[in-house]
Amino acid sequence: MSKYLLIMRGTDESNAAMMANIDEMMATTRQFIEETVKAGVLLAAEGLDDPGQGVVVDFSGEVPVVTDGPYGETKELFGGFFLLDVASKQEAVEWAKRVPAAPGSKIEIRRVPEEDEVPQDSSVQS
Are 58 and 64 contacting, i.e. CB atoms less than 8 angstroms apart? Predict the structure, then answer.
């Protein structure tokens, strides 16, 4: 089994469409979560607050710069995630296709590497 992160991405338009039908969206999302729990694949799921409430810490210069949201240049906003433990990327894709999502939104799927796959710095003492 491998862990896959399904990253929910929306635009201003898809987020507005979701908010217009929030009760229906929440009900179908709860149903999706119940299905993933019954299948034994859900490890975590969270939604995020409005991007206007967040900040960005930018490390482009010598000193980190903190900027309040919202972020005008951002075309797709990270709105939440599902972390699944599934047998393959294809299985993660099949679950992602079942996520209730507003038209115009996207789901990015990324595998979470296991600890033994991450290069270890042998000079660091634990």
Answer: yes
Burial of 28 (0-12, 13-18, 19+ CB in 10 A): middle
pTM reported for the whole predicted model: 0.81
CA 43 to chain centre: 13
Helix axes 22-38 and 12-20, enclosed angle (nearest 10): 90
110-126 residue pLDDT tens: 999 988 887 776 565 55
Q: What angle do CA 116, 43, 33 make, to 5 degrees?
A: 155
CB 28 within 8 A of CB 100: yes
